[in-house]
């Protein structure tokens, strides 16, 4: 299995960007539930090279390539070494604006939550750079498009994006598991709102609920 590394981050650091943020989303193709984005930026401590080796040794990778148990473990480890932010776009926003614009909203919120909360007491001099999985995040306050790079399959190439993908996946899976206790018929604790055969049959039998995305279940 190939693993992501810090090549993209190192280039940004060498170019003078002192806070490099990876961004990814999860739930874009689901039939139900919100789309969730996460942002992750490595905490710069002393002995950076030693820290990079430690992070690489954890086996951080595209969340889709990891077991649920591994994702849960890594989510805790990531919080030790990365500042993280979560952004959510609701089912209502997905139905109103479409999944692409809703995903952009979730990503902007993830970046905003990270930069406003984690860095409120840190002077960064505006030197932010976004590394995003296959997207540019337009209209992100303080981070213009020239300070962004969209990386195709970035969650398998860039550790910060991979870390964000894990944080987003764990957060959304937990959310859908909680929602499944109210909407018990759809099996969301197992399928996280995605279009499984069980989910399809449940919709045929019980109809949709307010957390279903209308264009996805027509």
From TrEMBL:
<dbReference type="GO" id="GO:0003723">
    <property type="term" value="F:RNA binding"/>
</dbReference>
<protein>
    <recommendedName>
        <fullName>Ribonuclease</fullName>
        <ecNumber>3.1.26.4</ecNumber>
    </recommendedName>
</protein>
<keyword id="KW-0963">Cytoplasm</keyword>
<dbReference type="GO" id="GO:0004523">
    <property type="term" value="F:RNA-DNA hybrid ribonuclease activity"/>
</dbReference>
<keyword id="KW-0255">Endonuclease</keyword>
<dbReference type="InterPro" id="IPR022898">
    <property type="entry name" value="RNase_HII"/>
</dbReference>
<dbReference type="InterPro" id="IPR012337">
    <property type="entry name" value="RNaseH-like_sf"/>
</dbReference>
<dbReference type="GO" id="GO:0006298">
    <property type="term" value="P:mismatch repair"/>
</dbReference>
<keyword id="KW-0479">Metal-binding</keyword>
<dbReference type="GO" id="GO:0005737">
    <property type="term" value="C:cytoplasm"/>
</dbReference>
<dbReference type="GO" id="GO:0032299">
    <property type="term" value="C:ribonuclease H2 complex"/>
</dbReference>
<feature type="domain" description="RNase H type-2">
    <location>
        <begin position="18"/>
        <end position="218"/>
    </location>
</feature>
<dbReference type="GO" id="GO:0043137">
    <property type="term" value="P:DNA replication, removal of RNA primer"/>
</dbReference>
<keyword id="KW-0464">Manganese</keyword>
<dbReference type="Pfam" id="PF01351">
    <property type="entry name" value="RNase_HII"/>
</dbReference>
<dbReference type="InterPro" id="IPR024567">
    <property type="entry name" value="RNase_HII/HIII_dom"/>
</dbReference>
<keyword id="KW-0540">Nuclease</keyword>
<keyword id="KW-0378">Hydrolase</keyword>
<dbReference type="InterPro" id="IPR001352">
    <property type="entry name" value="RNase_HII/HIII"/>
</dbReference>
<comment type="similarity">
    <text>Belongs to the RNase HII family.</text>
</comment>
<comment type="function">
    <text>Endonuclease that specifically degrades the RNA of RNA-DNA hybrids.</text>
</comment>
<dbReference type="InterPro" id="IPR036397">
    <property type="entry name" value="RNaseH_sf"/>
</dbReference>
<dbReference type="GO" id="GO:0046872">
    <property type="term" value="F:metal ion binding"/>
</dbReference>
């Amino acid at each position: 299995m190939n693993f992501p590394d810090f090549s993209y981050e190192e280039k940004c650091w060498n170019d003078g960007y002192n806070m490099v943020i990876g961004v990814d989303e999860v739930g874009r193709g689901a039939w139900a539930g919100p789309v969730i984005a996460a942002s992750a930026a490595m905490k710069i401590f002393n002995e950076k090279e030693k820290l990079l080796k430690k992070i690489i040794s954890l086996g951080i990778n595209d969340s889709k390539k990891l077991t649920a148990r591994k994702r849960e473990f890594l989510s805790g480890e990531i919080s030790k070494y990365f500042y993280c932010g979560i952004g959510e776009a609701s089912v209502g926003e997905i139905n109103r604006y479409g999944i692409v614009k809703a995903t952009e909203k979730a990503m902007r919120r993830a970046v905003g939550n990270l930069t406003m909360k984690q860095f409120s007491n840190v002077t960064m001099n505006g030197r932010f750079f976004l590394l995003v999985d296959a997207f540019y995040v337009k209209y992100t306050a303080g981070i213009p498009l020239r300070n962004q790079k969209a990386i195709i399959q970035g969650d398998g190439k860039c550790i910060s994006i991979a870390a964000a993908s894990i944080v987003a996946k764990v957060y959304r899976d937990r959310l859908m598991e909680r929602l499944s206790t109210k909407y018990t018929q759809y099996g969301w604790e197992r399928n996280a709102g995605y279009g499984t055969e069980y989910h399809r049959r449940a919709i045929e039998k019980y109809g949709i609920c307010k957390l279903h995305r209308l264009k996805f279940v027509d």
